[in-house]
Amino acid sequence: MKIFGISDLHLDSKKEKPMDVFGENWIDHDKKIFDSWKESVSEDDIVLLPGDISWAISLKDAHEDLSHIEELPGTKIITKGNHDYWWSSMTKMNNMGFKTIKFVHNNSFARDGIEIFGTRGWMSRDSDEFMNDDEVIYLRELRRLENSVKSSKLDNPSLTIALLHFPPFDCRGRLDDFGEYVSGRNIDICLYGHLHGKDGHKYAREGKFGNTEFICVAADYLNFKVKTIKEV
């Protein structure tokens, strides 16, 4: 079994949010992702999707985009991104009836000795954009990450992975509170996204920080190809 990762699919079944405004490489980006997915992923594999899945505003409007993901091979683990305005309660999302999509939000996912945690995260406190109101969101997201890890179902998992949408680093490239929490709990791998274009990608940090391997899986950072994270 292989584990893959990619975030920031930014699907738009209504064709109201063309992503090529961010560069020509975004033209037909969804087709590039899906083609790579079909070529690489088998039904027994797991695909990790840490946020910004669809531009839809409501859960109803997101159904078509999520249905496209449902039809792709593999089990998909989805966490929330800052543009996932369609995100709703776990009950409502689970009641959509998808068989191969699992949502992680204050909970975790376990299979074959592998355990996956996650939350959206938030911008670093030392960001110029971080305002007083952001502190409440920041602390709430930290609690959600803690809730997810504490919901662990396995006594001795063979592999642990955390999904964060925002990079778990401050503006100097050091682990922020999210990164410190993940590393401090000896989580093996942490995936994150959110960073786009040259201006964003220059802030990507990868490699071993503390006890955890950090990997950026933003779609354009990966050239819109699913990335193999681990084979188990």
From TrEMBL:
Pfam families: Metallophos (PF00149)
A single GO molecular function term of this UniProt record: hydrolase activity
InterPro entries documented for this protein: Calcineurin-like_PHP, Metallo-depent_PP-like, Metallophosphoesterase_sf, Pesterase_CT488
Residue ranges constituting the Calcineurin-like phosphoesterase domain according to the UniProt record: 1-197
Name of this chain's protein: Calcineurin-like phosphoesterase domain-containing protein
Source organism: Dethiosulfatibacter aminovorans DSM 17477
